[in-house]
Design brief:
Strand content: 5-15%
Strand order of the largest sheet: 1-2-3
Radius of gyration: 21 Å
Number of helices: 5
Largest sheet: 3 strands, antiparallel
Structural class: mainly alpha
Order of helices and strands: HHHHHEEE
């Protein structure tokens, strides 16, 4: 487990994927579902969510104070949450600079969704490539499959045997 503790034994039903995934998530600090995708808790920090909830109705002076609070919270988070905290602070600073964040927030929401979709498409493509390589006896040429996701969401997979496939990200 995290923190260098001893081994732990899962004592639940090993055939119950959701119980096993919940057990691993609780110990590893991850946010996975049984199918490998991330759940709604991924990238979220409860302490920063509470500050962010006050943001839309706050005055500019209050936003300055909230940003200070959020910065303090972010500095005291474990290293595993620093990337998520950076996203919160970036969004707060940008929307504070604009003053009226409605259009900014819509664009930021779209950017984040695209970023998540791209990561998810790449993960599925890697899984598909690994499955194909396993079924093909290691990809024919013994090489490692390479996965690329373009800015328009197209996923390109090239296998170790020189084969390549392309798919549009869903």
């Amino acid at each position: 487990p995290a923190g260098g503790g001893g081994n732990e034994t899962f004592d639940g039903d090993a055939r119950d994927v959701s119980a096993l995934v919940a057990w691993v998530n609780a110990r590893a600090g991850t946010h996975r579902r049984g199918d490998g995708s991330v759940n709604d808790g991924a990238g979220r920090v409860a302490a920063l969510d509470a500050i962010a909830a006050q943001w839309p109705a706050a005055s500019l002076q209050q936003k300055e104070q909230l940003l200070g609070q959020a910065s303090l919270v972010a500095r005291n988070l474990p290293a595993s949450q620093h990337d998520a905290a950076k996203e919160y602070l970036q969004l707060m600073r940008a929307s504070w600079a604009i003053g009226t964040p409605v259009a900014f927030l819509a664009a930021e929401k779209a950017r984040c969704r695209a970023k998540l979709a791209e990561a998810e498409a790449a993960r599925w493509a890697r899984d598909d490539a690994a499955t194909a390589a396993d079924a093909d006896g290691g990809g024919g040429g013994g090489g490692v499959a390479e996965v690329a996701v373009s800015s328009d969401g197209a996923v390109s997979v090239s296998g170790g045997g020189g084969d390549s496939a392309e798919a549009a990200a869903a």
